Amino acid sequence: MQIVFGIDFGTTNSALSVYRDGTVEVIAVDGCERAGELMRSVLYFSEDDEILVGNEAIRQYVGEGAAGRFMQSIKTFLPNTSFESTEIFGKRYAIDDLVAIILRKIKNRGEAHVGSLVESVVLGRPVVFSTDAAKDAVAEQRLEKAARKAGFKNIWFQYEPVAAALAFESMLQAGQERTVFIGDFGGGTSDFSVIRVKGGAFARSDRRNDVLSLGGVYVAGDKFDSQIMWDKVARHFGRYARYKTMGKDEWVNVPRSIIYTLCQWHRIPLLRARATREHIRVIKGTTDDRQAIEHLENIISDNFGFFLFQAIEKAKCDLSELEQTLIRFTERDLSISENIGKGEFETINRENFLQIADCVDEVVAGSGLKPSQIDTVFLTGGTSRIPHIQELFAERFGRDKLENRDAFTSVVHGLGSSVPLFV
Ligand SMILES: Nc1ncnc2c1ncn2[C@@H]1O[C@H](COP(=O)(O)OP(=O)(O)OP(=O)(O)O)[C@@H](O)[C@H]1O
Ligand SMILES: [Mg+2]
Fold first, then answer.
1. What residue ranges define each of the domains in the chain, with the CATH number in brackets?
2. Average pLDDT along the chain, 423 residues, taken 10 residues at a time
3. Which residues sit with their C-beta closer than 6 Å to ligand 1?
4. 3-class DSSP state for residue 140?
5. With a threshold of 0.90, does the pTM exceed it?
6. Cα–Cα distance between 13 and 206 in angstroms, integer?
7. Ligand nearest to C-alpha 41
């Protein structure tokens, strides 16, 4: 009996499925999150050399008051060729080492569940890791290397939206045929596919001819969070602060690059570079908003970006249900309470929604079909819960074609269903 794992290593969440004897089961990988089904794709390195993953990492990070090093959105570094490795408490970790730690943890949990060693895996990958083909290839190679380091010997890749399509297919009745637009909106990427599916067709040998079009864009949940930070929160950290340059008697703004980095929370640790900290110290000397610059120093040294972004993310998720909400956050003498409305969220993210819409239109055009020839639009991934995303599809295809299901597990289920295509 062959057992193969399907692993969806996501920007925000990871999940595991087990393929065994022609059936696929999604199994819990972490203690608490969403009934344990998902594992947050995060790592925590404590000062005393302990490495924790998922919920344990979050708990320890919160408990230790952020003394160690916390990392999230690691997947977004995969195509970044200028980021090879990082030093954590005197040890160097290549990007694939970091990913391997997460994959190994998932592998161990899965093996404990099935009671045997499992060395084969189907890994999901976004359609577009990067629009630069060389970087895209690097990302996949790194992911493969990570899987090898985690102990897998047979490794296959499946596009995430194709996996979601296979999950959708498994819900159809035998013989039922559909042409489906799949939209998988995650934390890092939004991935699309137009694909023909047929109920009861599980394990058909080759699906290449059924995939009519594929595409993706690097705009998803994290970008929406960053945009909220930029427009609603960054002023507390000096976005509008000015200071006097040395020598010249001129008032200038805090460098945009600093504020921009601040808005991508997983990059905030990069601001610890000595030159940047020195620059901020100089700014503090003459600035017209000393308090904001102090907050900027504090977020860098105390590393509370994670909690701030949790507050931002929570507000974003609230707006999927409510007309307005508050972004609330306190830390030492910093107290943020910003009102944000659904309309405002949509306005500040106009560019992001446009990029998504353009990509959707391209993928539809690439399939050679008109929207009216597409039977169903299947939306999945956490970010698909944003009402405006659903409206984009309702406008193009009509609301009655939309199906929303299993936001967090359809990809991993489909990775398991992909196994017979490879083995
Ligand atoms: N109710 C909600 N409204 C809006 N966004 C949400 C909601 N619930 C979750 N999200 C967002 O969904 C994202 C996580 O979704 P998901 O788990 O599908 O991503 P992922 O698979 O980890 O990422 P990727 O597929 O890009 O690698 C996060 O950005 C999260 O903020
Ligand atoms: Mg995903």
1. 3-171+406-422 (3.30.420.40), 222-348 (no CATH)
2. 94 96 90 70 90 91 77 92 88 96 97 97 94 95 98 97 92 92 95 91 67 94 97 98 86 95 87 93 96 96 88 97 98 94 98 98 97 96 97 97 91 94 88
3. 10-13, 75, 186-189, 220-222, 313, 316-317, 320, 381-383, 385-386, 408
4. helix
5. yes
6. 29
7. 1
